[in-house]
Amino acid sequence: MTQPGTLAALSCITQPATLSRVQRKSFANVNCSVAQCLEVVGEHWTLLIVRDLFFGVSRFDAFEARLGIARNVLTQRLHHLVEHGVVERVPYQQNPVRYDYRLTPKGRDLAKVVTAMREWGDRWAAPDGPPVQLIHDACGQPTTMVPHCSHCGARLYGGQVHPVPGPGAGDRRTLPAVAWEV
Questions:
Q1: N or C: which terminus of the chain carries fewer CB neighbours within 10 A?
Q2: For position 24, what pLDDT does the model report?
Q3: Per-residue DSSP letters for the chain?
Q4: 128 occurs within a structural domain
């Protein structure tokens, strides 16, 4: 025999719930370069679109087919990337007008971000090995991103750099004086 209230409790578990869409917090007013980057490329699907642009995908239908993304979402993400100067629309056909999407210099600067995420995924989320590898054309071997000092060229290892307030820092007390792992 079922305990009183058990059916009601079970029905709330088994029936689908409709949740209102959760609004993402904006980082527009946060004085942090990571937060500002997330304002531009932090939405679901956006970095996969950028990844595919690096792979040479440039047409709306090709993004839609490769990613399995809804047309309205793809339209929104591409518009957002164009609005923020990461991608440009270049007409390739006039009647009707159709566009290629191409990375701008600002967009090409995301190569390090996409590469870092791919390498993290290769290490921590790809049990069968990397799905994609980058091959160095000069030696023909798989390569990974290795951090070097932009001033002296020395290879950077964990704990060899530390954060300090930069010229755009508002409150100079916000950064802890700790070593940064690279």
A1: N
A2: 66
A3: -PPTTHHHHHHHHHS----PPPPPPP-TT---HHHHHHHHH-STTHHHHHHHHHTT--BHHHHHHHHT--HHHHHHHHHHHHHTTSEEEEEEEETTEEEEEEE-HHHHTTHHHHHHHHHHHHHHS-TT--S--EE-TTT-SEE----B-TTT-PBP-TTSB-----TT-SSTTSS---PBP-
A4: no
In a domain, 180, yes or no: no
Q: Residue 38: inside a domain, yes or no? A: yes
- pLDDT for position 17: 39
Residue 91 β-bridge partners: 99
Q: What does the pLDDT read at residue 11?
A: 35
Q: How many domains does the chain have?
A: 1
pTM: 0.79
Q: What is the pLDDT of residue 169?
A: 81
pLDDT value for 162: 82
Residue 21 in any domain: the answer is no
Residues of the chain with pLDDT under 70: 1-24, 171-182
Tokens 């995908």 -> residue: 57
